[in-house]
Design goal:
By secondary structure, the chain is an alpha/beta fold. The protein has one domain: 3-Layer(aba) Sandwich (Oxidized Rhodanese, domain 1). It is built from five helices and seven strands, in the order αβαβββαβαβαβ. It is globular, with a radius of gyration of 20 Å.
Length: about 180
């Protein structure tokens, strides 16, 4: 019996260690440039990491600006002529601004400008305003965008890693969103 308990204890300890090791994702030195739907770190240096309860409290108090960075799927290039294309609707946290495609590890100059301008409009030009960046759970897009927001000199950045997945699991309201318009150059 003692041998059985010892074996079970060792097996449980090994499983717990494996689960902990799996959860510990280190912060990269730069931006993540691929495999964006993968486990994310528990931290983002310089930013506050929010739980769903904390994000909800900020949202209810209207104490911050919420920025959704989920990419928008492009219209397929080889659709047959006359095919009707409808974007998949995006439901996000009410009151958010949606700046799609701004969470990639490398941004083209127009996309980076779109992010900068969107943050400027959302914050009213106040680099000390609380900006909450999110996407979906296990999505590096929000981590990258929050890190980039810090690099632009915003001092009060929060990252909500559970994003709309966590928000919807908590049965919180969501609204259909449209992307912020892009400036034509």
């Amino acid at each position: 019996m003692i041998r059985y308990v010892s074996c079970v204890t060792l097996a449980l300890m090994a499983l717990a260690g494996a689960l902990r090791a799996e959860e510990l994702v280190p912060e990269p030195g730069g931006y993540r440039t691929g495999d964006y739907r993968a486990p994310v770190p528990d931290t983002l240096t310089g930013a506050r990491v929010l739980s769903t309860a904390e994000a909800e409290a900020i949202w209810r108090a209207k104490a911050g600006v919420f920025v959704d960075v989920l990419p928008r799927p492009p219209k397929p290039a080889n659709l047959p002529a006359g095919t009707v294309w409808r974007d998949k609707p995006r439901f996000n946290i009410p009151g958010s601004i949606w700046l799609p495609d701004t969470g990639y590890g490398e941004l083209a100059a127009p996309t980076e400008n779109y992010l900068r301008q969107g943050l400027l409009r959302a914050s009213g030009g106040d680099r000390a305003a609380l900006i909450v960046v999110y996407c979906q759970a296990d999505c590096w897009m929000s981590w990258n965008a929050a890190k980039r927001t810090l690099s632009y000199g915003y001092s009060n950045v929060a990252w909500y890693p559970d994003g709309t997945d966590g928000w919807q699991r908590a049965d919180l309201p969501a609204n259909e969103a449209q992307p912020e318009p892009r400036q034509t150059e």
